[in-house]
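To the team - heme C complex, inputs and output below.
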Amino acid sequence: MKMTPGVLIIGALLVFWASAFIIAGLPAATMKEKPSDIWRPLTAEEEAGHRLYVANGCSYCHSLFIRINDWDIGAERIAQAGDYVGQEPIILGSERTGPDLSQEGGEHPDDWHLAHFTNPRYTSPISLMPSWEFLGRQEVRQLTAYVQALGLKAADYRTARQKYWKQQASAAYAAGPDANVEWIHSQVPEVWRRMPNPYPADAAALARGKRMYQDFCVNCHGPIGDGQGPAAAYLYPPPLNFTTLRRHLVENRYIGGIFYYQIMNGITGTAMPYFKKHLESEKIWDLANYLGVYFVGYTDANIEPRGIDAAYEGPWQNPYQPPAKGAK
Ligand code: HEC
Ligand code: HEC
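Output:
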């Protein structure tokens, strides 16, 4: 065959179409991803939130794809291709200035998100996420609906649990401060209620407690622990006022285990988040000592049964002794 310009052009076009078919056409025709076990379509409001997520560049700081090597919120379920069927556009993001959000739905109740989108520092005092208050209440509601849907059916399961416990917690709060505290404490397992703080509340521990309180708690529970931080205006039930706890706790004497359990797990249904992924064990005990000493007026640190002191602990006598039973 003679290499005329016509043959050359037809040959080049054939090569082009063949490679286009192999690279793009074949995969598009055969690689239809099937919906995963947790998949469901987004509602209109969630879809509107998804568009806001894309338009406002949330993916510059957040990913929507949690991998087997991650140890983050949502790592209970590794992301799968089938989770994203029907999303347009699919923007998974590769930056993690903020946490991965692929299983964000149901991590917090809606009121937490309202406070957080209004000003992230209300709920997370050292956050560098920008405020989205300028979007207005309706768009913040749509964004909230979208982040509550992240995780799809797995998220629905968690949001249903948040809603169930929100009802219980709101009813307890409406019954008055004493009934509320009694209800919250009755949800803490007996073994934790009867556990004293095993760590001394020495100067270094209290300084660590204070630092963490400023970094994680202060804008909800307030600088003096009265529950009047700036987030309170957005939350129902509002953050607990620690200064009302004393009369409940003196009957019990022990206080450290109750605090530890609640700080570790959060209180589902309320804005109180869990901290077991942010803070390791000793830091949670330090916080419990800090709340006890500064906001309640005593700590059960190192009282009987105290166990064996850890090797690194110095000699320490508890100067913040729990009051005797029946004391005010
Ligand atoms: C400049 C980076 C940045 C941008 C942009 C950003 N975030 Fe964040 N985001 C963060 C950081 C950091 C955190 C962790 C601290 C906190 O809770 O605020 C966070 C936390 C969150 C959380 C809470 C996660 C949890 O359960 O603790 C949600 C939900 C969230 N962002 C949603 C969004 C949405 C929706 C957008 C876009 C409208 C957005 N973020 C834009 C940095 C960012
Ligand atoms: C986003 C707001 C928010 C943040 C941040 C927050 N809390 Fe809470 N906290 C709450 C709410 C809301 C409650 C429950 C109020 C209710 O149900 O009456 C609560 C309850 C508690 C309780 C239960 C007290 C009791 O005796 O029953 C403890 C302890 C507590 N918080 C400690 C902390 C600590 C420590 C931090 C920081 C590491 C923290 N909280 C951060 C909102 C918050």
